[in-house]
């Protein structure tokens, strides 16, 4: 269910509930357009909401919409949501559920709303307006369809410009999302903001009564990308917050509190703030205020009021001059947000775009700086005089660096860029545009990633992961002391029957023997049972585990050191060596021919590429004699390595 649907449902259920108490509860509205139902006594104890009166058209819409659909005709999710909101209202205001609500309320709803979630869903004037104007909207919709049909002919012939999208994650519902000081809707726990033009933007989230961290995020997005932003909102304690009422002769003037943009005057007539001193600035192009900054003390539970009068910048300068004060003004703008303005080498504490007023006449050197950007030009110089007391300058800032993220897994290796150590396990920072060499330190037990060259380009963030491949060396062998040994693996001895799998056994299977000819200890393979028919075949099984993050394409090899003894089985007339090898259940070799001890007098190492057979997690190797084998086989060692 969409968040807008939840808003509509809550608005309708709250209005339905409080209309039955029309004489007790009235509708109150705040500067964000949010609605609350309160008694008169409750309203007197707060400073944010004011009494709202419907106009004649709204009352007409309400009369048209008195008959709503019954609960039984609604989809299950909407029905459950409405019943849960009704239960919340009845528990809070009536002290218990009405019998009809209790009967209809599901015990285990598929769509569950907590009290906190219900309280944080904002009921706004525009939501109530939508839910109350459906009949009139039907006529408008018919007209709109005609317009859309005509417009589609035009838009379908145009190529759509690439745009980005933002995923806004906030821990509180109902906060406004601002993109470059323009409202773009409410923040949800996960809210998608579409149609973001490529380039620089400043994103912020605000909700009365909450402190937001961070207060804003500056981004630079490319087309057809999705960027995730996270904001944390913490409620301000009621005994530690107050309110600020702002008025001005221009309702479209921008309001800044403590250098943070809040909105236009018309949008934020009342602002919730922590108690204490706050600096207030109003800005409007071509206009100034006197004084430019107002400092206001906000006390807990009280409302502080401040009024600004904006006058044309030229008139202000002229007025000041007549008072024997020679002053000028500078308007500084930049191509990106967040650039600090320096006058005569001193940081003004202001960011472009900004208008400086009440400046003494004289010479000024103007610079704008922002980390990771180069300014064009590097500076402007101006001489403010009585004849030319105003200056207007623009700077273009181009990125000289780009954000780069480099990580090493699974080992924590030292990361070097152009030979300089920049991090261990992870590096996240800005690199100058161009080519850079990335290298890594050695980590015991791992193969070091090879040196690479990365190319850093504007508006192309880099996020790379480099793999330290574990050095794997598994050995199962018979030692020079005649003991079975295993390194990073498990060895089981046992037997097999024709067309049957491996069975581990302490009684049957290859035994460890000493061969005088080769002066070595071996596992001796032959038949498993002397007095059974079939006699079975000696077998060995080696099991081991490989990392789950095993890289595809990693090369592995299997090496076997063994020899045919040349000694026939009892009562056998021929000498036929037939040894079968399996890896992860697949036959690795049907034609394994070990050296004959009597002929070569040495062990033979046989090797296979098993890169396509290994897998993350559990792996098995099996070697056994077959029914066609009739000479004893000596196995010294099995090794698996990468």
Structure write-up:
It is a single chain. The strands form 13 sheets. Strands 38, 39, 42, 43, 45, 48, 49 and 51 form an 8-stranded mixed sheet that branches. Helix 1 packs across helix 4 (about 75-95) and helix 1 (about 5-20) crosses helix 7 (about 125-130). Among the domains are: about 5-135, no CATH class; about 165-235, Immunoglobulin-like (Sandwich), CATH 2.60.40; about 400-470, Immunoglobulin-like, CATH 2.60.40.1120; about 475-640, Galactose-binding domain-like (Jelly Rolls), CATH 2.60.120. It is elongated, with a radius of gyration of 40 Å. Strand 42 (about 510-515) and strand 43 form a beta hairpin. About 15% of the residues lie in helices and about 45% in strands. It has 10 helices and 51 strands. The protein is of the alpha+beta class.
Q: What would you call the quaternary organization?
A: single chain
What CATH architecture of the domain at 473-641 would you give?
Sandwich
* Average pLDDT score: 81
What count of helical segments does DSSP give? Answer: 10
Record field, number of beta strands: 51
Give a short account of the largest sheet: 8 strands, mixed
> Uncertain regions: pLDDT < 50 for 5+ in a row?
63-68, 130-160, 315-325
- Category by helix and strand content: alpha+beta
Distance between the termini: 52 Å
Write the layout of secondary structure elements.
Elements (H helix, E strand, L loop, with lengths): L2 H17 L6 E4 L5 E4 L1 H5 L5 E2 L4 H9 L11 H18 L5 H6 L10 H6 L4 H7 L2 H22 L8 E7 L4 E5 L2 E6 L3 E6 L2 E8 L3 E4 L3 E5 L4 E10 L5 E8 L5 E4 L2 E5 L5 E5 L1 E8 L3 E3 L3 E6 L4 E6 L1 E3 H10 L4 E8 L5 E4 L2 E6 L2 E7 L1 E8 L3 E4 L3 E5 L5 E10 L1 E9 L4 E4 L2 E5 L1 E7 L1 E7 L5 E2 L4 E5 L5 E6 L1 E2 L2 E6 L5 E4 L2 E7 L6 E2 L6 E5 L4 E6 L11 E10 L10 E12 L10 E5 L2 E7 L2 E2 H4 L3 E6 L7 E9 L5 E11 L1
Parallel strand pairs: 4-11, 12-19, 21-28, 29-36, 45-48
Antiparallel strand pairs: 1-2, 1-3, 4-7, 5-6, 5-8, 8-10, 9-11, 12-15, 13-14, 13-16, 16-18, 17-20, 21-24, 22-23, 22-25, 25-27, 26-28, 29-32, 30-31, 30-33, 33-35, 34-37, 38-39, 38-51, 40-41, 40-44, 42-43, 43-51, 44-50, 45-49, 45-51, 46-47, 46-50
Helix pairs in contact: 1-4, 1-7
């Amino acid at each position: 269910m969409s968040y807008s649907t939840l808003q509509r449902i809550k608005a309708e259920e709250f209005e339905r509930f409080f209309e039955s108490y029309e004489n007790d509860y009235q509708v109150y509205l705040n500067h964000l357009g949010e609605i609350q139902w309160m008694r008169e006594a409750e309203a007197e104890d707060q400073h944010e909401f004011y009494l709202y009166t419907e106009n004649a058209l709204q009352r007409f819409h309400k009369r048209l919409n008195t008959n709503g659909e019954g609960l039984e005709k609604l989809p299950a999710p909407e029905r459950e949501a409405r019943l849960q909101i009704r239960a919340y209202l009845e528990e809070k205001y009536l002290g218990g559920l009405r019998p009809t609500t209790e009967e209809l309320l599901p015990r285990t709803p598929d769509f569950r709303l907590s009290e906190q979630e219900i309280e944080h869903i904002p009921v706004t004037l525009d939501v109530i307006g939508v839910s109350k104007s459906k009949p009139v909207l039907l006529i408008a919709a018919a007209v709109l369809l005609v317009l859309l049909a005509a417009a589609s002919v035009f838009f379908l012939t145009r190529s759509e410009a690439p745009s980005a999208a933002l995923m806004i994650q906030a821990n509180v519902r109902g906060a406004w999302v601002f993109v470059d000081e323009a409202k773009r809707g409410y923040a949800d726990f996960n809210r998608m903001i579409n149609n973001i033009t490529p380039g620089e933007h400043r994103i912020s989230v605000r909700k009365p009564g909450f402190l937001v961290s961070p207060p804003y995020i500056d981004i630079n997005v490319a087309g057809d990308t999705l960027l995730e932003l996270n904001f944390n909102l913490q409620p301000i304690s009621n005994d530690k917050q107050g309110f600020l009422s702002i008025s001005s002769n221009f309702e479209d003037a921008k309001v800044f509190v403590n250098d943070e943009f809040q909105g236009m005057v018309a949008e934020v007539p009342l602002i919730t703030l922590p108690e204490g001193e706050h600096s207030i600035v109003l800005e409007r192009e071509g206009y100034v205020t006197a004084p430019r900054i107002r400092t206001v003390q906000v006390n807990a539970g009280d409302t502080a009021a401040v009024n600004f009068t904006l006058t044309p910048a030229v008139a202000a300068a002229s007025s000041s001059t007549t008072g024997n004060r020679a002053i000028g003004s500078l308007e500084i703008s930049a191509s990106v947000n967040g650039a600090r303005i320096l006058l005569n080498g001193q940081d003004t504490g202001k960011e472009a775009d900004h208008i400086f007023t009440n400046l003494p006449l004289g010479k000024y050197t103007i610079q704008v700086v922002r980390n990771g950007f180069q300014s064009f030009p590097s500076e402007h110089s101006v001489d403010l005089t009585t004849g030319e007391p105003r200056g207007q300058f623009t700077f273009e800032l181009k990125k000289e660096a780009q954000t780069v993220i480099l990580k090493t897994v699974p080992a924590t290796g030292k990361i070097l860029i152009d030979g300089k150590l920049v991090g261990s396990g992870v590096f996240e920072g800005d690199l100058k545009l161009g080519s850079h060499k990335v290298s890594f330190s050695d980590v015991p037990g791992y193969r070091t990633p090879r040196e690479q060259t990365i190319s850093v380009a504007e508006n192309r963030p880099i996020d790379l992961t480099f793999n330290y491949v574990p050095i794997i060396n598994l050995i199962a062998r018979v030692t020079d002391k005649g003991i079975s040994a295993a390194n990073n693996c498990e060895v089981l001895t046992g037997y097999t029957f024709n067309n049957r799998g491996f069975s581990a056994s302490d009684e049957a299977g290859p035994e460890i023997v000493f061969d005088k000819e080769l002066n070595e200890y071996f596992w001796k393979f032959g038949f498993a049972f002397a007095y059974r028919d079939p006699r079975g075949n000696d077998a060995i099984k080696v099991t081991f585990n490989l990392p789950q993050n095993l890289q595809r394409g990693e090369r592995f090899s299997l090496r076997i050191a063994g020899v045919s003894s040349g000694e026939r089985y009892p009562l056998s007339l021929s000498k036929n060596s037939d040894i079968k090898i399996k890896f992860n259940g697949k036959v690795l070799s049907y034609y394994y021919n070990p050296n004959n001890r009597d002929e070569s007098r040495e062990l033979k190492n046989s090797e296979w590429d098993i890169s396509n057979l290994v897998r993350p997690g559990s792996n098995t190797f099996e070697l056994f004699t077959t029914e066609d084998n009739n000479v004893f086989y000596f196995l010294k060692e099995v090794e698996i390595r990468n």
